[in-house]
Amino acid sequence: MLVARSVRRLSFLVVASLLLFGTAHADPVSDLGLVTKGLVAAGRLPADLRDKFGETFGSGSGLAADPKDWTRSADGYRGTLYLLPDRGYNISGTSDYRARLNKVTFTLKPEQSLELNLAETILLTDTTGKPLTGLDPLVDGVRPARDGFPPLPQASTGAISIDAEAIVRLDDGSFYIGDEYGPHIYRFSADGKLISAIRPPEAFIPKRNGQDSYSSNNPGADTPAPKPANPESGRQNNQGFEGMALTPDGKYLVVLLQSATRQDGGDSPETRQNARMLYYDITDRDHPKLARENVVVLPFYLNAEGKRRVAAQSELFAVDATRFLVICRDSDGGFGLKNAASRYRKIELLDTSNATDIAGSKYDDGTPLAPAGKLVEGIVPATLTAFIDINDNAQLSKAGLHNGEQNDKNNLSEKWEGLALLPALDPANPRDFFLFVSNDNDFITQNGFQAGASYKDPSEADVDTMVLVYRVTIPKLD
Predict the structure, then answer these.
(1) Helix or strand run (H / E) with residue 395
(2) Among residues 476, 478, 469, 388, which one has the least CA distance to residue 424?
(3) How far is it, in rounded angstroms, from Cα 98 to Cα 79?
(4) How many independent structural domains does the chain possess?
(5) In terms of DSSP bridges, do strands 211-212 and 207-208 run parallel, antiparallel, or are they unpaired?
(6) Model-level pTM greater than 0.90?
(7) Tens digit of pLDDT for each residue in 234-263?
(8) Which contacts (CB < 8 Å, 24+ apart) does range 67-76 have?
(9) What contacts 397, CB < 8 A, 6 or more positions away?
(10) Which domain holds residue 191?
């Protein structure tokens, strides 16, 4: 097991103010030494863009950068991002959308522009070459364990169902994907073929009538809805592995549920704050081992009606083995929705240094660790410290963007779900980085086409895929 260690403070680094869009700005996070120097660029790809398969591109549900393809020149930076779409357009039920990964090249000129270009699209297939599907699994849709794979979610077509939400890319080009249906962790080769799958502890697996049941209550056409609609235990519908990160030493793959399991208060928007986080030792990638498990208490906010709600998490990035950046957000407003304003979108610093390790305990078998949302005595959760407020209009205005009215294309869309970090390659500031943040636009367009059918979203909006870029300082540990 990875042993929880005493808190190691990030060394404090005094940073000279940086002129961004004509304004000096620096916000230290307490005494931890992280500094945000503000938004330096934003870019977008059009909502009706089609990929090489003729289908609507979109949805930055997961984001990874290629450090080998990152360069700086006199006029800016060039690099490659991998944007992971989720299960496809699903406003009125899921479709047989083939899972895929998009490669996007970009040019960054800080304080000026971010230009994005779709370069390639890679289909995700099983070991036989059959594409994985975004279709909701059947209520009893379980592909039996075989060929070294655990039981997996299965659609009415017989294909493996995946709702891809998080990505980690490895040095050899292969990559892990965090899934919401299972929730499972999948590893794919560089060309998109399934290599392996990790099944989490039983407490995570959705159960109906005592059996594995992966349906998220969003059936495809002519497919019955599950009964009951929600699982009785395990991950809540659509609240799987939204966050996934690789520690910088490459040893640990870390995943975080979007919010609490059903038995831990995840059956209510007011009590779903105790999310579970798993560390897997992937030193031997063919034989990953569960190394640690912690609890993360997600933040609260007040919605437009003044009701207390949990800000679920939607992405994770590892700073080191115990510190992470995590996006916590609401689902209350944004471009494409009736309400214009979001109430809560923040990048937080998550610290597991002092958190209780519950891996291998009774809580992995399904015993509630937070009945009705109340964490049991003796479990110390990880800590969260606010770092970047994505909704900060003073920052957004530098790129011509805003949160709230007017509800136009420059208003941030609802979901921000991707994080990637690249060094600024600045000798004068060697611990400065660019933090990339992507949105999930839900494929909202008035000119859409997927899975053999055209569509027009009822919102009457065209929500672009967008990427924000912040400059941040992350000092070395003492």
Answers:
(1) helix 393-396
(2) 469
(3) 26
(4) 1
(5) antiparallel
(6) yes
(7) 999 999 999 999 999 999 999 999 999 999
(8) 67/422, 70/422, 70/423, 70/425, 72/425, 75/109, 76/107, 76/108, 76/109, 76/110, 76/112
(9) none
(10) 19-238+332-348+387-473
Q: Which two tokens stand for residue 60?
A: 């930055």
Closest of 10, 135, 138 to residue 472, by C-alpha: 10
Residue 376 lies in a domain: no
Among residues 334, 316, 338, 335, which one has the least CA distance to residue 325? 316
179 residue type, one letter: D
Which two tokens mark 83?
């944007």
Parallel, antiparallel or unpaired: strands 312-318 and 308-310 = unpaired
Give dist(CA 191, CA 122) in Å, integer: 7
d(CA 137, CA 223): 10
290 occurs within a structural domain: no
Joined together, the tokens standing for residue 436 give 């990339």
What are 386's two structure tokens? Answer: 């606010």
Amino acid in the structure at residue 13 = L
Residue 288 lies in a domain: no
Residues 56-104 have pLDDT tens digits of 998 899 999 999 999 999 999 999 999 999 999 998 899 999 999 999 9
Does 374 fall in a domain?
no
User: Which amino acid type is present at position 208?
Assistant: R
Between CA 82 and CA 102 the distance in angstroms is 6
**CA–CA separation, 131 vs 151, rounded Å?**
18
Number of helical (H) and strand (E) elements in the chain, helices listed first:
1, 32
Given its phi and psi angles, is residue 263 left (phi above 0), alpha (psi -120 to 50 degrees) or beta?
alpha
